[in-house]
Amino acid sequence: MIVAIRHILKHSIRARLIAMTGAIVVAVVCLLTCVMALLGASSLRQESDAQLAQSLGQSAALLGNFIEVRESALDQWAVHPLVDAMFGDPEVAGIFVPNLHNFFGKIRAQEPWLSQVFLIQDQQVLYSDDQRFEFSRDGNGVAAGLALIARLPARGASVLDLRRLRAGPSQQVLLLKRPVFKDGRPLPGASVVLLLDFAQIQQKLFGQIRIGHSGFISIAASDLSGKVVLPAQPDLGGSERGDFRQASAAWRSWSDIPERYGSIVFRRQHLDGTPFAIVGVASRDDIRASVLRLVALSAALGLLALLFGVCCAIYFAGRLTGPILTLTLKAEQLARYHAGEVDAATPSGRMPKLDGLDRHDELGRLAHSFARLQAAIHDKIALIENQNQLLTTQDAQTQELNQSLERKVQERTGQLQQALLAQQAFGEQLQEKNRELDRLSITDRLTGLCNRLRLDQVLDDEIKRYQRCGTPFALVLLDVDHFKRVNDTFGHQAGDIVLAEMADLLATGTRALDVVGRWGGEEFLLVCRDTELDGAALLAGKLREQIAGHLFRVGGGKTCSFGVTSVAPGDTLAQMIARADRALYRSKAGGRDRVELEGGPDGAEKAAEKAVAAAASAAPAGAAGPAQPAGRVPA
Question: What CATH number belongs to 452-618?
Answer without folding.
Answer: 3.30.70.270
